[in-house]
Amino acid sequence: MVEVVKNLRRQFRRGVILWNAVAPVVALVLLLRGQGWLALAILMSAHALWLVPTLWPACDWLGEVVCTLKEARDGQHERPYDEEAKEVWLTIDDGPDPVDTPLLLDLLDQFGARATFFFIGARARQHPELVGEVLRRGHTVGNHTLNHVQFWFWAFGPSSVSREVGACQDVLGELSGGEAPRWFRAPAGFKNPLVQAEVERQGLRLAGWSSRGRDGVIKDQEAILSRLIAGVKPGAILLMHEGRDDGQGGRLAPQVLEKLLTWLRQHGYRCVLP
User: Fold this and answer.
1) Nearest-CA neighbor of 142 among 111, 109, 112, 176?
2) Any alpha helices (H) in 56-192, and if so which ranges?
3) What is the per-residue pLDDT across 134-187, written as a single tens digit (0 to 9) for each?
4) From the candidates 47, 77, 93, 148, which is the catalytic residue?
5) pLDDT tens column, 196-207
6) In Å, how far are 46, 124, 173, 216, 261 from 239, measured between CA atoms?
7) Of 67, 222, 259, 267, whose CB is crowded by the most CB atoms within 10 A?
8) Is 77 annotated in the active site?
9) Catalytic-labelled residue, pool 139, 144, 148, 241
10) Continuous segment of H or E residues that includes residue 238
């Protein structure tokens, strides 16, 4: 069944790419015939089929987007996943950061928690020792593109997508002793049909989230924590970011993480890996 769904998504993705190539020609012909409204509808249909799954991070029309631990583990383990288990997958984007990453690792050790760090390839290349330390302490690393071109990655063409995903995979694989990442997350979660195709070609799975604090945008610790906690439930995927100050001379991610891990422990949750 999994393969059937995967093939259907692949065919749909190819259809969307083809329709976006053909639609402007069809629209031009209709426009020349005086059928302007129909031409506009044709163009809008093509753009909608491209933009909705691209700009909606959880949309899985064009390829798998894993947003829960159950989805992450389906087909990967012999025994069925316990959907009632109070487990969450903690994911931390945008590192490695020379200040935050060591502090986060110490906190994770203190609480006996595991996490996946989605690293930017260029930053990992600058701090290879942190990649090794993350793995040594029992965590995993994921692919978060080579340069994290947040505002334009969703509009990249085939060669740029291949470079961003493939080069990051090469960097992290080399720094991880040949064990390449198995998970990918797009900058801001934006992934066009070409990204989905490249992720599959690289043998990666695309990780989404079910709860995020928007700490890449806001710096209010309590607001960030409240947003994260609001989405906590068995099997949730939590998204945090590292590498930001709190606007008051401190570091944002370590302070939020300590409060989050304290809350999770008090409510019987464990941070596990898929």
Assistant:
1) 176
2) 69-73, 100-111, 121-126, 128-136, 158-175
3) 999 999 999 999 999 988 888 899 999 999 999 999 999 999 998 899 999 999
4) 93
5) 999 999 999 999
6) 31, 19, 23, 10, 13
7) 67
8) no
9) 241
10) strand 237-241
Whether the CB-CB separation of 61 and 6 falls below 8 Å is answered with no
- pTM > 0.90: yes or no: yes
Per-residue pLDDT tens over the stretch 93-139: 999 999 999 999 999 999 999 999 999 999 999 999 999 999 999 99
Enter the tokens of residue 162.
């291949």
DSSP-assigned letter for residue 141: E
In the residue annotation, 148 being an active-site residue is answered as: no
- What tokens appear for 161 in the block? 């997508």
CA–CA distance from 159 to each of 162, 163, 194, 239, 257 (Å)? 5, 6, 10, 28, 37
